[in-house]
Amino acid sequence: MRALRFHAARDLRLEELPEPKQPGPGQVLVRNRFVGICGTDLHEYSYGPIFIPKEPHPYTGAHGPQVLGHEFGGVVEAIGAGVTSVVAGDRVSIQPLIMPRSGDYFADRGLFHLSPQLALVGLSWDGGGMAEAAVVNEYNVQKMPDEMTDEEAALVEPTAVAVYACDRGGVTAGNSVLVTGAGPIGMLTLLAARAAGAAQLFVSDLNDARLDLAKSVLPDVVTINPKRDSVGDVVRSSPEAMSAVTWPLNASATNMR
After folding, report:
1. Model confidence pTM above 0.85
2. 109 confidence band (pLDDT: 50, 70, 90)
3. Which CATH class is domain 158-255?
4. Are the beta carbons of 82 and 26 closer than 8 angstroms?
5. Contact, 50 vs 8, CB < 8 A?
6. Is the distance from CB of 22 to CB of 78 less than 8 angstroms?
7. In this structure, which topology does domain 2-154 adopt according to CATH?
8. Distance (Å, rounded) from C-alpha 169 to C-alpha 163?
């Protein structure tokens, strides 16, 4: 199968690799459809290895060269023994965190993401989304409803980042929200804030093309280019912002993209 693998900073290679082995117990073989390019992938390309292990990962054993891609989805091709949540033919989105599910201080408390043994598909796992197929654990796959497209399946993971930002920011009905950065994560954060009930939305970016796109998606969003305008002055001059709580959400800093 074809796969894009990281070998070193600025050294990505499109290679032919063996097809993944049949899934073991509790595992799922996915034929990948769409994959996103995360800011983390760009950082690995420019400055890595950062998250990609130089030595075998203590939990997964993975190390470079590494197939990239942790924002992806596909179609289940085969399942291993004990898998019950999906069957062959199901369309799924991948949630990339890999860690002990029990016998670990954090796992036993449901705080899987805090485990010191944490790994990620596409960074510290044998496989990733930038290949034609990948084997992942059953807990890494989420079945997609029929009304969602394959492209949207690949957006579930970055959308979760945006929803989490709004949860952490305490965004609720009537709030006024400023998002700094109108890239993909910034746009998803605006949409998540609106879904949470935010009344007035602001977005700042140095790129006018991104601001125009934000306006086309959310016509009532107030766009700000800091090269021309003071972000604080624009926000303070808004009647809606003066009568509501303002939660600045820096999506770019939160998600490094």
Report:
1. yes
2. very high
3. alpha beta
4. yes
5. no
6. yes
7. Quinone Oxidoreductase; Chain A, domain 1 (3.90.180)
8. 10
